[in-house]
Design a protein that fits this description.
The complex is a heterodimer of chains A (215) and B (311).
Chain A (H helix, E strand, L loop, with lengths): L2 H5 L4 H25 L9 H29 L9 H23 L4 H10 L1 H18 L3 H7 L1 H7 L1 H16 L5 H35 L1
Chain B lengths: L18 H6 L15 H7 L15 H4 L14 H5 L9 E6 L5 E4 H4 L6 E8 L4 E11 H7 L8 E6 L7 H4 L10 E5 H4 L5 E6 L2 E2 L9 E3 L12 E7 L6 H5 L23 E4 L9 E3 L23
Parallel strand pairs in B: 1-10, 4-11
Antiparallel strand pairs in B: 1-2, 3-4, 4-7, 5-6, 5-10, 7-8, 7-9, 11-12
Classes of the chains: A mainly alpha (215), B alpha+beta (311).
The structure holds protoporphyrin IX containing FE (HEM).
């Protein structure tokens, strides 16, 4: 029925990789256009355009990563969870290049400028906090670390919800005049986190119920 | 040096052709067209005195100045105004002048500008978001227009108001916008009367594109761009300092004065430097920001004021 399973070649994985890398590929193409003729792809303000583009993909990938486990439960496809890692790593890659774009194009590679922004501009503070929190998650995303950390691994990786919240606050604080996108991602985060909290609460209640019967 | 070719002289005309010019081409008896809008013909007939370029500072090409805009009435992305501002009807256009004036009234735009000489002014435009442009405006001193309505002795401030028309301004329909329309701005009367402060009706030798604030906008080059209100329908002379949109939204971030000042930082953007557009990947064009955006001659307006407090 499913050729993927019978041949034991997981085509979904490279396909997913290509899909997640596509925004990078489009950006590379735009870089090439820009090289031919400045302004052709990024308009008047290339720094802003590139930083925003990568920031948007960073938060989308982050939300996608958060959605994998709930989706696996919802569609009763537990094996989907295998793809969570690559989503998370792409979220990290987009966030890191987003930071690199900010550093090179908006902050003019000035570390003093970054430090000043970190101290004086709350949306940068939370952005950097989010990026820094992503680092240990990316590092410990391998199976080896998962084994080594045991049950602490799950505890550590719950940090991703905090990162999602930081990203939403980052977006809220940098938007002026409208908060549509921040509200959208915030609502998504609440749904995803809510699913988790509700599930745990239900399990607890079930456990308590069982314990009650025993006693 | 070789004769300068102005960027707008090589800009395709399709970009700015006014709606009326397009319609007019198919209408017989064009001369009888009841006209309230500013068309290319109108500007051509009026003519304007050419302005002096800023030494060593190149004009931002028209295609950037007309494609990269903040005009939240049409959306919050920089390309939203260029995409959606054509939905705004600028013909007919009336402006209401009210408040502390001897001769208040509602006037069609062409009558409003009757007999006013137009001149080109090539100005820096510094946005609070730390980018800037150099734009050749066509307009006239604010003072010339306001004096026609004979402000009373009690008039101390002048308030401006942008069109509200959600059916044609999709940003005003946005559920998530935190701006309370209409967009309002204001100046102290002595600021408005400074010879550098102008109303613009054109740029780059053409009538203003809608996304740049057609048909009538303010240009106050020593202040952050958001003070230079667009598509004005109301001018009111007041005794007290009028409310201003960004100040209402975030008083801590946007003051009433909003003079360009590298010494006063903003919680979102460092104001010490700016990206002079176009800012490309390979030439970001970062330059230092100057006090009063380089227009130090306005400093006496603020003599004795603490500009860190009155930012
Ligand atoms: C978890 C990490 C991060 C995520 C998910 C994220 C996400 C975003 C998003 C969604 C935007 C808005 C894009 C738009 O409005 O189109 C944005 C803008 C921005 N971010 Fe981040 N960001 C992160 C970290 C950072 C860091 C570490 C920095 C710099 C230190 C940073 C600096 C900026 C800047 C400067 C902008 C505004 C660009 C502009 O409008 O000029 N971000 N980010």
């Amino acid at each position: 029925m499913n050729p993927v399973r019978t041949r034991r070649v997981d085509w979904a994985r490279p396909a997913l990789f290509v899909a997640l890398a596509t925004p990078f590929a489009l950006l590379a193409h735009d870089f090439w256009l820009e090289l031919q003729s400045p302004g052709a792809a990024f308009g008047a303000d290339a720094g802003e355009a590139v930083t925003r583009y990568l920031g948007e993909w960073a938060i989308r990938m982050l939300m996608l990563t958060l959605a994998v486990s709930p989706a696996a439960r919802l569609f009763k496809r537990p094996r989907l969870v295998r793809y969570r890692r690559v989503c998370g790593l792409f979220a990290f890659a987009y966030a890191l290049t987003h930071f690199a774009a900010y550093l090179a194009l908006l902050a003019g590679l000035s570390l003093r400028g970054v430090l000043e922004d970190f101290i004086e501009r709350p949306y940068i503070t939370v952005g950097i906090a989010g990026l820094l929190c992503l680092v240990p998650l990316a590092v410990t995303s391998t199976r080896g670390w998962q084994r080594r950390l045991g049950s602490n691994w799950r505890r550590l990786h719950r940090l991703v919800y905090a990162i999602g919240a930081l990203a939403c606050v980052h977006l809220l604080w940098l938007s002026k005049g409208g908060y549509g996108e921040a509200a959208l991602y915030g609502a998504l985060l609440i749904v995803l986190l809510g699913e988790r909290v509700a599930r745990i609460a239900l399990r607890r209640r079930a456990a308590v119920g069982k314990a009650g019967k025993k006693g | 040096m070789a004769e300068r070719i102005r960027s707008y002289e090589i800009t395709p005309e399709s970009a700015w052709l006014s709606r009326r010019a397009v319609l007019g081409a198919g209408v017989a008896g064009l001369a009888a067209w009841p006209s309230h809008a500013l068309s290319q013909d109108w500007l051509g007939q009026r003519g304007f005195a050419p302005g002096a370029p800023i030494a060593d500072e190149a004009e931002t090409p028209f295609e950037y100045a007309s494609a990269y805009n903040n005009f939240y009435e049409f959306g919050s992305d920089k390309d939203d105004p260029a995409r959606h501002a054509h939905e705004m009807t600028v013909d007919p256009w009336t402006v209401e002048v009210s408040g502390e004036v001897a001769k208040p009234g509602k006037i069609g735009i062409e009558d409003l500008l009757g007999g006013i000489d137009l001149e080109e002014r090539i100005y820096r435009l510094r946005c609070v978001e730390a980018w800037s442009m150099v734009i050749p405006w066509i307009g006239f001193p604010v003072k010339k227009l306001i004096e026609r309505f004979e402000p009373t002795g009690a008039a101390k401030y002048v308030a401006f108001e942008t069109l509200v028309r959600p059916s044609e301004m999709r940003g005003q329909r946005s559920f998530f916008s935190s701006i309370d329309w209409p967009y309002v701005e204001g100046l102290r009367l002595d600021e408005a009367y400074h010879p550098l402060a102008i109303f613009a009706v054109g740029m780059y030798g053409k009538v203003l594109p809608n996304q740049n604030g057609a048909p009538l906008r303010l240009v106050v080059p020593w202040k952050y761009g958001f003070k230079s209100i667009k598509s004005i329908v109301g001018i009111r002379l007041t005794r007290r300092q009028p409310p201003t949109t960004w100040n209402l939204l975030q008083a801590r971030e946007y003051g009433f004065y909003a003079n360009v000042n590298p010494a006063v930082d903003h919680p979102r953007w460092s104001q010490k430097t700016e990206r002079r557009l176009p800012s490309s990947l390979f030439a970001p064009n970062r330059i230092d920001t100057k006090p009063f955006n380089g227009y130090e001659e306005v400093a006496p307006l603020y003599a004795g004021m603490d500009l860190r407090k009155h930012f």
